[in-house]
Design goal:
The chain is of the alpha+beta class. The chain is built from eleven helices and four strands.
Amino acid sequence: MKYTLCLICISVTLFGSSLDELIDHAMENSTVIKQSKAQMQLAEVQREESQAEHLGSIDLVGSYTHFNLPRTLIPLTPGSLLSDPNAAKAIATTKDLFATGVRYSVPLFTGFAQTRQVEMDSLTTELSQSKLSLTKEQLAYNVASLYLSILGLQDMSRAQKKHVDALGKLKHIIQQEVSLGKKAEIDLLKAENDFYGNKSYLEVLKGNIAMTKASLSSLVGLKHLGEIKPIRVSVKKPNYSINMLVEEASKLNKVHISELNIRKASKGVEKSKSSLYPQVSLDSYFGYNYGENDSANTFPGDFNSEENWQIGVSAKWTLYDFGKSDASTQKAKILRMQATFDKEQTLLDIRKSLVEAVEKMKQEYANYQANLKQVALAKKSEKIERVRYKNGVSTINDLLYATSQTHVASAKLIESKYNYQKGKFYMNYLLERGVK
C-alpha cells in the first residue's frame, strides 16, 4: 500500500495534475468538506435522538432514606393488619430504608411538541445536505480559480522570459555597436536598465507562481503540487439571458436552503403552541425495598425485603404562565418572518450576482478582442522601430518603448483570456454546475 501511494505521488509530480483530479482530491481531503460532513452527521444524530425520546427511558434507580420513626418496607392497608394480628406483629419495620428497582417513563402526549421537533430535525438534516453541496461548489470554484491563476502566471512568466531574452540580445548588439563607435554609450545604459528591470520582474512572477501553488496545495490537501496540466480556453462572445438564468437559479440549493429555513421556522411556530395542550406521561416502577428491623420490632435486627411495583399516568395542563407561552410563540413567528425575508434577499442577491457575472464576462471578452488587436499593432510598431533604430532614424527610447508596449499588450491578452475563463467558472459556481 505504501508503494502504491509513493507511485501515485511520483505520478502527480512527473506527469502533472489536471483540474478535475485536483478537485476530486479536494473533495476527499479538504477539511472544509469534512467539517460539513460532520455537521450533516450531527444533524442526523440529533434527529435520531428526538425520535428516541418518543419511546421514553428505562432507568435503574436506587435510594437510601433514614427516618426518625420506623416505617414499613411497603405500604400496608388497615385491613391487612386487622385480618391477622399475629402476622401484623411480624411485619418488618425499619428506620433505614433501602430501595432498588427499574423505572420506565414515557411521554404519552406532549401537545405535538416531540412530533414537531422530529420534523424540525429532519429539516435540519436536509439543510446540512444542501449546505454540503454548496460547500463543494465553493471549493470547486476556489480550486479552479487558483488553477487558472497559476496557468496565467506561467504564461506571463514564459512571455516575460522571451521578453528578457530579447532585451538581452538587444543589449548585446548595442554593446558591440558601442565598442565599434556606431552607438552612444547612453543607449547601452538604457538597454541594460530595461533588461535588469524586466529580469527582476521575471523573478517576481516565479515567486508568485510558487506562492499560488502553495495556496492550491493547501486547499486540496496535498503536501506538494507538481506541474499542472494546461486547459483549453475558448473565448467566445457571451450570450446569456438574465431572465432564463434567474429562472434556473430558482431551483438552486441556495434557494432550497431558504425554503427549508421557512419550513423549519413554521414548525417552530407549531411547536411553540404545544404548551396550550395537556402534557400526559406514564411512569412505571418495579423493585424491592430493604431494611433492618428496628429495635422496637418483634424481631429486631432481622434484614428483610419486600417486592414493590406501581404504574401510573399523570397529566399537567398549564392554565396561566404569565405570558411565557405567548412570548415563545411570538418569537417563533418572528423567526419565520426573518426566514421569509432571507429567501427574498437570497433571490435578489442571486440576480445581482448573475448580472455582475454576465457583465464581467462581456467586459473580459471586449478586453480580449481589444488586446488581440493591440498585440498585432504593437508587434508591427516594434518591427518598424527596430528597423528605424538600426538605421539611426530613431532613438533607443523609441525602440524600448515599442518593445515594452508589445510585452504589455501580450500580458494583458493573457490576463483577459484567463479572466474570461474565471468568469465562466464563476457562472458555473453561481448556477451550481461546478461539481459533477
